[in-house]
Amino acid sequence: MPTKIILIHRISDIKLFPKNIFLDKEAKIFSFSTDVHKELKSQNINHIIADDLIANDERLDLFDKGFDFLFNFETISNDLRFKGIDLIKLIDTHELLSYLIPTLVKFIIVKRIIEQECPSKIFASDYFKKIIDTIIKENKIEKFFYENQFEEKLLWDNITIKYNIFKIPIIFTLSKNNYLKIKKLVESFVGIFENTWLDLDKSNKKSIAFLEFNPELWDNLLKHLKNYDGNIILINRRRPAVWSKKSLNIIKKSNIKVLDFEHILTQHEYKQISLLTKNYSKKINECWGNPDFFNNSFYIENFNLWNIFEEKFLEILTKKLPEFIFLILVCKKLFQKIDIRCIISLQELGETEKIFLKSNNKIPSVVLDHGFVERVEETKRFDKLLYVYFKDKIALWGNVRKNYLINEYSISPEKIFVTGSPRHDIYFNSRSERKITKEITLLLAPNPIGEFSGLASTNLELKFENTIKEILSILKEFDIKIIVKLHQIQLKHNHDIKNIISKIDKNIPIHITSSTIEAINKSDVVLVLSPESFGTSTMLMESMILGKPTMNVILDNKIPQYTHVTDNAIMTIRYNDKLKENLEIFLFNKDFQNQLIKNADKFIEKFLENRGNASEACATLLKLF
């Protein structure tokens, strides 16, 4: 039986270990990422994929546990308040979960390895040190840790910039600080020369504030608010409100004003930020220095994990502290000078949203539903990431979702508006008659694997890659023209997908930032690849609206019985369901395609209200505030 185990987290770890250790017959090697697995395989080094040691049911339990930890983390502080706002609760929920849940998964995997292998020696990079030290309290096992200078980044520590130049996707990454500096320069230039800034000293009219909205996606709603007898203000901290000629034209034509964060505070107030940051940093360190402060909140399988999270959570909060204090001061001053009647957001989990919504509890707020969501009992847990827990009111796409929230979560009907989807008005108004062409064009829309669910694994990524390869091979055999539209979400796997497809065929156009509606309208059929069956991609609904036959290939052994599945509005199959035969039916059987379109039209009629004029309905509602 092997007496040594080697844990390899990332590909750069491999060169840290002594070369002879990989030849040691008493050593068992565990890979913790797809890149590591592929590299070890290419070197003919025997190893075990660590992800295989826990099943999906366990991963889903860890997803639930991650939310419990997050709740505990956000409810433990009373002294860390600035202007009445608990600073701990301001950290972006998605960003925190993107660190928390994968760490929980790795902890359980390492614990399983140690329990099963009973090693005498453990070799690992320093990434695993706190995990292993938490599990092994005694000195019976020798531990060897190798330092890797690679720095683990949070979801938004770096910002990925994406543009399409003709058919070529251009992607580059900036640190968040550099991104904010460039954003500041661009917005200053546009604000001065195009007169888009909100003038706080002259804006005594009532106002509606939109948090982190992309004007290109909400063009129609903003146009319907043009005659509002007050200010429409875009408050964008994460991304610029003006980032293209189109977005600038929308803002100018709709008489929208953009909040200039940099010119709200006085020089004296700016100087106070550094002093306040120093003061609150001291308070944070005092809290972290209290051994009883967090210790009872982070238990799993009788192990206290606070030792694992302690340093990272402190680093996160300390790094974000100056920005939090700055935004809170901006909010307080803005609310003093501007008569804001309503705050509109797309979610309440981001830092901009949390700060603005917590800075004034008297101002009404509305969350706008903006994604296609269906649920069955086994996927209900993922509602925690969506529109269930909101501060005030929510505007939904239809009565189906309204009834779901009322029945499943006992949400008062008085908190729910049904407006339809303003951002999809243009889809209804852009639908054209199907044309029979000799060449069939298929739009391939692969959804990336995320870290939030805990389901991300080496085997899921390999299954994804093999399925993509098989689909492209079949389409090539059928002589189908392919267009690829990637999701704009900032995930590593999105970059991996681009590389996989480009490696297979560099001539396949891959679109990232280009218009989704144009991509769908240029296609005859749409194929969505869904690695996580709980995720109902909005691309599915958008393709149905535009009258395109749509197939959804899921990388799971069970298809959730969503209404769009049971209504046969989407051809939904598993990745191992005779892919070639199903694709042949989907691509070439016109009667089958026509029936799909009819079913989809009926589904959309049930699912969406105010089809094609939701912007008007939503604008009418917002003007009442």
Largest sheet: 7 strands, parallel
Cα gyration radius (Å): 26 Å
Low-confidence stretches: none
Mean pLDDT: 89
Q: In terms of structural class, how would the helical and strand content be classed?
A: alpha/beta
Q: Whole-Å distance between the termini?
A: 71 Å
Helix content: 40-55%
Strand order of the biggest β-sheet: 12-11-10-15-16-17-18
Number of strands: 24
Overview of this protein structure:
The chain has 625 residues and is α/β, with parallel strands linked by helices. It is 43% helix and 17% strand. It has 21 helices and 24 strands. A 7-stranded parallel beta sheet has the order 12-11-10-15-16-17-18. It has a 6-stranded parallel beta sheet with strand order 21-20-19-22-23-24, with helices on both faces. Helix 8 packs antiparallel against helix 10 (306-337) and helix 10 packs across helix 11. The protein is globular and about 75 Å long. The termini are far apart.
